[in-house]
Amino acid sequence: MRSRILGLGTYVPDRVVTNDDLTQYMETSHEWIVERTGIEQRHWVSEGQTGADLAEQACRRACTNAGVALADIDLLIYATLSPDHDFPGTGVFAQRQLGLGTIAVLDIRQQCTGFIYGLSIADAFIKTGTYTRVLLVGSEVHSNAMDISTRGRDIASLFGDGAGAALLGPSDEPDCGVLSCHLHADGSEAEILWMEKPGCMYQPRITAEDIEAGLHFPHMDGRRVFKHAVTRMPESVIEAVTANGLTVQDIDMLIPHQANLRINEMVAKQLGLPPGKCHNNIQKYGNTTSATIPLCMEEAIALGKIKRGDLVCLTAFGAGLTWASALMRY
Ligand code: UT7
Questions:
Q1: In the structure, which protein residues have their CB atom closer than 6 angstroms to any atom of ligand 1?
Q2: Domains of the chain, with CATH numbers?
Q3: Is 244 a catalytic residue?
Q4: DSSP state of 315
Q5: Are 54 and 78 contacting, i.e. CB atoms less than 8 angstroms apart?
Q6: How far is CA 135 from CA 173, 183, 198, 221, in A?
Q7: Rounded to an integer, what distance in angstroms lies between the CA atom of residue 321 and that of residue 194?
Q8: Among residues 257, 264, 280, 296, which one is catalytic?
């Protein structure tokens, strides 16, 4: 038995922040951001809007698009790097808002690779018959956790808020659905993209000096992350097609994580995929971490670029370091 995406749903907050808007807070320019990243704008939450709020909307839309009632869901998987609280995981807050009763909730922390890790868990539970209606959501609120000043411009110009969800269930067509997932991690360079503090390993977990130094903001060695991303993402795509006796040329559409348009153009080029077979929408949303893949895939479906039965490959790379791919006949 295979699992299949029965419906996708996405949600971004109303507030649009353009590159020009960012120049109020930091020394940057529309030209720099577009040239280095492809990003033209991103969405930020309004005061009081939470990650669970974004997730709730995306989940409701995924269920509607799948034609599945909320009452039929038996597992919620919540992927995020920006939880609403340290604990409990944000999944239970989304569960409560969705009125999902006492179903199982699983929070996962694989950052930009969270959606594919979550997909692999949903796939495994469905294949074993443990659960039949699994709601997977990636939701992020970055805007209130970044250094919105010139000091933090390398990060603050990249990330946006948003959520994307998929409702998965057993496939009624034997050839369609998730063919395989390939997950990887390498902690040897965990510190090249991280938020160090507050941390349980410190006493106290954070000090006034740490805050002054900005250690509670995310930090990244952008060039190093870039180099890993353009190596690991093509590797993971080749791993996916090879495991299924297919070739890159068989792929109808590649949906890569949206961290940087230049990264994705290099990935597609290395794979020999024409631009029409790789969909990107980072221009509108920036990097929404665990939400990029459903946001990008749903758009490609809406534009008619992905049809039922097409061979679709997902690939992602992010903090950890983590990377992964999934191949499916949508
Ligand atoms: O999803 C998680 C994975 N994340 C990624 O995959 C991100 C990977 N990395 C990248 O996308 C790129 O490395 C960045 C977009 C973050 C940076 O691009 P870059 O071409 O690698 O630039 P750089 O870091 O080498 O910085 C070049 C210059 C620096 O100034 P100096 O030191 O040369 O004077 C930066 O301070 O650009 C400066 N800079 C900016 N200037 C204007 C950095 N951010 C900005 C900015 N506006 N927003």
A1: 28, 32-33, 36-37, 112, 153-154, 157, 222-223, 225-226, 229, 259-260, 263, 287, 318
A2: 3-170 (3.40.47.10), 177-329 (3.40.47.10)
A3: no
A4: E
A5: no
A6: 20, 20, 31, 34
A7: 10
A8: 257
| Per-residue pLDDT tens digits for 267-296 | 999 999 998 999 999 999 999 999 999 999
The protein residue with its alpha carbon nearest to ligand 1, atom 13, reads: 222
278 has catalytic annotation? no
Give catalytic status of residue 287 as yes or no.
Answer: yes
Q: Residue 307 has what pLDDT?
A: 96
- Contact between residue 124 and residue 88 where contact means Cβ atoms under 8 Å apart: no
What is the model's pTM?
0.96
- For 296, the token pair is 């990008």
Round to whole Å and give the CA distance between 78 and 139. Answer: 8
CA 286 – ligand 1 centroid, Å: 14
From the CB of residue 269, how many other CB atoms can be counted at a distance below 10 Å?
14
- CB of 271 within 8 A of CB of 241? no
Q: Is 180 helix (H, G, I), strand (E, B) or coil?
A: strand
Separation between Cα atoms, residue 216 and residue 86, nearest integer Å = 13
Instruction: Give distance in angstroms: CA of 35 to centre of ligand 1.
Output: 11
CA nearest ligand 1 atom 11, residue: 260
pLDDT of residue 30: 98
Catalytic position from the list 63, 228, 287, 313 = 287
Which residue is it, tokens 């000043």?
A: 149
> What's the CA-to-centroid distance between 235 and ligand 1, angstroms?
24
Which segments in the chain show pLDDT lower than 50?
A: none
Residue 231 in contact with residue 266, Cβ under 8 Å? Answer: no
| CA pair distance 318, 293, nearest whole angstrom | 13
Cα dist. 147→67, 151, 202 in Å? Answer: 41, 7, 22
Which pair of tokens denotes residue 282? 């980072």
φ and ψ at residue 42, rounded to 5 degrees: -150, 170
- Collect all residues with Cβ–Cβ distance below 8 Å to 231 and sequence separation of at least 6: none
